[in-house]
Write a structure and sequence with these properties.
This protein is an alpha/beta fold and 306 residues long. Helix content is 44%, strand content 11%. It is built from 11 helices and 8 strands. Strands 2-1-3-4 form a 4-stranded parallel beta sheet, sandwiched between helices. Strands 5-6 form a two-stranded parallel sheet. The protein has a two-stranded parallel sheet with strand order 7-8. Helix 5 links the parallel strand 3 and strand 4. It is globular, with a radius of gyration of 20 Å. The structure holds zinc ion (ZN).
Length: 306
Amino acid sequence: MMSGFSRLRAGGLLAGAALFATAACGAGAAETTPDGKPEVVAAFYPLQWLSEQVGGSDAQVSGLTPPGVEPHDVELGIQQVTELKNATLAVYVKGIQPAVDEAVEPDTSFDAATAVATIPAGEHAEEGEEEHGHEELPYDPHLWLDPSRLATVATKLGERLATADPAHAQGYKERATKTAAALGALDQEFTKGLTTCTSRTLVTAHEAFGYLADRYQLKQVGITLDPETEPSPARLSEVAKLAKAEGVTTIFTEALVSPKVAEVLASQVGAKTAVLDPLESKPSGDYLSAMRDNLKTLQTALGCTA
Ligand SMILES: [Zn+2]
C-alpha cells in the first residue's frame, strides 16, 4: 500500500493537498521568507535561472524540479504542491508539467507561455503518445530555447515581481533589463553563427527545439514528441528516410534521454551523434554558457561558417 501510494501521480494527490493547503494557510495566503523576501518557485531550470537573474538578492528563488530529473511528467508530493500554492509567485510554462499546471494558483503564478508568441506543437504525434506530457497542447511549450523570446519573458517577469514586491520594483526592473540585454546578445550570436550553413535540418531526440528552429530558420525533425515515448519502427524509418534525403550528418541526443535510439538511427543513415542540450535540467554551467555550447555543436553539425 505504501509503495503504491508513493507512486501515485500528483493529480491523485491534489484533492488532499488542496484541502491541506487551505486548512494550513488560509486561501491565497502568500508566503514570504522570515526576512520578508518574496518566495519565487520556478518549475524547472531555465525558469529558475531567469528568476534568479531578475529576482537578484530581493527574492528567494527555489527550483521545483531537482537537477538531473526530466521535468516532463514530474510527480509532485504534497509539500511541493503546497510550496507552489503558497509561493509569492510560481513561474512555469503551461504544458510542460501537467502536475504543476494543476497545482498553481491563478493569482500567484506566471505562465511564461502567455508572455510570448507561441508556435504550434509538433504535428507527428503517434498513436499512443497522447497519454504523455505534451498532450492536446495547442502550442509547443519549449519557448526558452529561443533567447529572444526568453528576453521578453525576462521583461514581463520583472514587471510581475515589481507588482508583487513594490518596495523593490526598481531593482526587479533594472535586473530584468540587464537579463533581457544578455539574452539579446546571445540571440545575435545565434543569428550570426547560423547564417551560412550547409544543412539546416536538426534531427533531435525529442521535439524540444521548435523555437530555436523557428527563430533561426532551421527545420526540426524530432524522433519523438515527448522524451518518455519510444518511437515506433514506422516513425524511425520515416526519420531515417528524411535524414538521408536531407544529407543529415549528425543526429542530436540529449543528456537525460537514452542515446540508444539516436545511435541506431545514426548508424542507419551513416551519421554521427552529438549532444544538444534542451536545458530542461540544470547544465554544468548556466543557461547562457549551455546555449553557447549548443551553438558550437550546431555550427559543427550543420557545417556553418561564421
Ligand atoms: Zn521537452
